[in-house]
What does this fold into?
Amino acid sequence: MPKPKLDAATALAALNARIIECTRCERLVEYRQSVAQVKRRAYLDQEYWGRPVPSFGDPQARVLIVGLAPGAHGSNRTGRPFTGDGSGNFLYPVLYETGFASQPVATSRDDGMKLHDLLITAVVRCAPPDNKPLPSEIANCAPYLDEEMAALKNLRVIVCLGKIGFDGVVRHLIRTGEIARRGVLHFAHGAEYKLPNGHFLLATYHPSLQNTNTGKLTKAMFYAIFRRARELAGMK
It folds into this structure.
């Protein structure tokens, strides 16, 4: 007899449990653990997560954020996407103001943060050296993204943070047969595409300090992306 289909919450919880134990990429395992042992001076009194970082948010989400990878002293320390670093300090206030997050500040897995109709994931689940995962490491993580997408039954909008996240989603669409080739799907801030299955793909610059401190990505630009995501997802 066929196995019964799991509900989204159960499927994602089971997937995250497997992700946390993943050791597919030797280079990333060594790096994430070494960072967790050496630590940054400001966090010497804290115990680093030092493992792959699972997705975070609402299993019933209509909007999915796909980022690059955990930050060495952010998510690799706290164990939650975009939590405890400059990128998160830029992201979560915007999510709060656009109605996706319960609070504007993310500091730890135990800070009470809740996401509404939104899930956050990444194309790579371990912190990579210099924030640059290898193509083979992105490929090793790809099946996890495929499973997450399949579990999100209410998904309507995918927001890609940066070109690597965008390219990872495009490859997912090709792998799963949603599209035959990349075609017109090209990364640019504010790019918007309607996919054959009716979902929407939005692209934005990554909220890295390099982009936000230089003004390449402003709060107004980022806010507009998530207001648009709400509109496309049919939210008030």
User: Anything to note?
Assistant: The chain has a mean pLDDT of 96. Residues 212 and 218 are 6 Å apart (CA to CA). The domain at 8-232 is CATH 3.40.470.10 (Uracil-DNA Glycosylase, subunit E). The chain has one domain: 8-232.
